[in-house]
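Quiz preparation item.
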């Protein structure tokens, strides 16, 4: 598949280093943020999810109505909305806003505390089994021409059917680093999302997930989530990273960072523990993969950064491209301004670099 560049939108301004300001839902900011991604050449934006954040489908609809062709990746946790209803929500939104702009990202849940805020007290292994059933029923609901029955451990349907269908496939994204996650994602996901880890660890994970998918006769794509920190010179970029770390420390000390953290010690995700271990080993891996914010935030979320000039960051991203990753989710610490800046140089350079690699693979 060709390269896909994804961003991430939020309903108000904020980040670990910038803190948060304004109303929780600022419609104008969300519209401006979405249009900035479209103008910068992004393909799709993630609408994130937590047990205390604004509802994702509504936010995604606002993004779609505020732009002409930008796609959305709606994050959601299986277990709170029935997969049959989720399929109809996706298909309806697809019909209302234009074909091919929707994708869905399944988050099984790395924080037991955050799951319980929405009333989910299943342990993690059960949540992964539930996610597998959810995706299976969702796929059938999106495509079935006739009503179907389903009986599993968590879901039971008789005569399930959706009269509304999307105009094309709805890509199913999935994330998780545990063995349970690999078993579920390898069998059911279209795109497996991974954090920005060192190349050796990323390669190992990709090989493991591909092997799992192959057992089911499937191929699978991958997405990398990372935070570029760019400047005109490498020294300036590292100075910028240091300032981001200082600002994050200040926000955490002052309480302005707690809003986006699940809470120290509460995130039990295997992926979060891997990031914490890598951050504690050293703050810089592979020359410019920086764990300065990851170390402060308990390994949670998309926090690792690539630091350097636009070309240096693109060169680092293309090393992941060489591992087989074709989806790159990038978001900034100064979210709106970073997107606007990346549209001038980083995004065009990344597309050009990927295109050059593809051309090199074509026989003369």
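Solution:
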């Amino acid at each position: 598949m060709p390269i896909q560049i994804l961003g991430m939108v939020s309903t108000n301004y904020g980040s670990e280093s910038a803190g948060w300001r304004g109303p929780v839902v600022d419609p104008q900011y969300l519209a401006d943020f979405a249009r900035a991604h479209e103008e910068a050449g992004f393909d799709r934006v993630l609408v994130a999810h937590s047990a205390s954040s604004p509802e994702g489908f509504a936010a995604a609809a606002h993004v779609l109505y505020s732009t002409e062709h930008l796609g959305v990746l709606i994050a959601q946790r299986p277990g709170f909305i029935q997969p049959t209803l989720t399929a109809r929500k996706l298909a309806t939104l697809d019909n209302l806003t234009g074909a091919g702009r929707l994708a869905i990202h399944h988050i099984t849940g790395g924080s037991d505390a955050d799951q319980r805020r929405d009333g989910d007290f299943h342990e993690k292994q059960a949540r992964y089994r539930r996610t597998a059933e959810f995706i299976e029923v969702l796929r059938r609901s999106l495509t079935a021409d006739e009503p179907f029955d389903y009986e599993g451990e968590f879901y039971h349907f008789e005569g399930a059917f959706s009269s509304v269908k999307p105009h094309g496939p709805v890509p199913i994204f999935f994330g998780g680093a545990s063995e349970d996650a690999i078993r579920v994602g390898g069998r059911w996901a279209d795109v497996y999302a991974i954090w920005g880890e060192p190349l050796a660890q990323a390669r190992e994970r990709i090989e493991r997930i591909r092997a799992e998918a192959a057992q089911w006769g499937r191929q699978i794509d991958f997405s990398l989530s990372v935070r570029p920190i760019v400047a005109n010179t490498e020294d300036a970029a590292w100075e910028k990273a240091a300032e981001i770390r200082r600002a994050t420390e200040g926000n955490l000390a002052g309480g302005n960072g707690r809003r986006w953290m699940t809470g120290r010690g509460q995130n039990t995700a295997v992926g979060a523990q891997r990031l914490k271990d890598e951050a504690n080993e050293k703050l810089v891996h592979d020359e410019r993969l920086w764990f300065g914010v990851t170390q402060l935030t308990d390994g949670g979320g998309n926090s690792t950064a690539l630091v350097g000039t636009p070309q240096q960051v693109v060169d680092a991203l293309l090393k992941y491209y060489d591992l087989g990753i074709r989806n790159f989710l990038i978001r900034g610490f100064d979210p709106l301004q970073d997107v606007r800046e990346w549209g001038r140089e980083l995004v065009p350079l990344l597309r050009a670099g990927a295109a050059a690699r593809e051309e090199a693979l074509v026989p003369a």
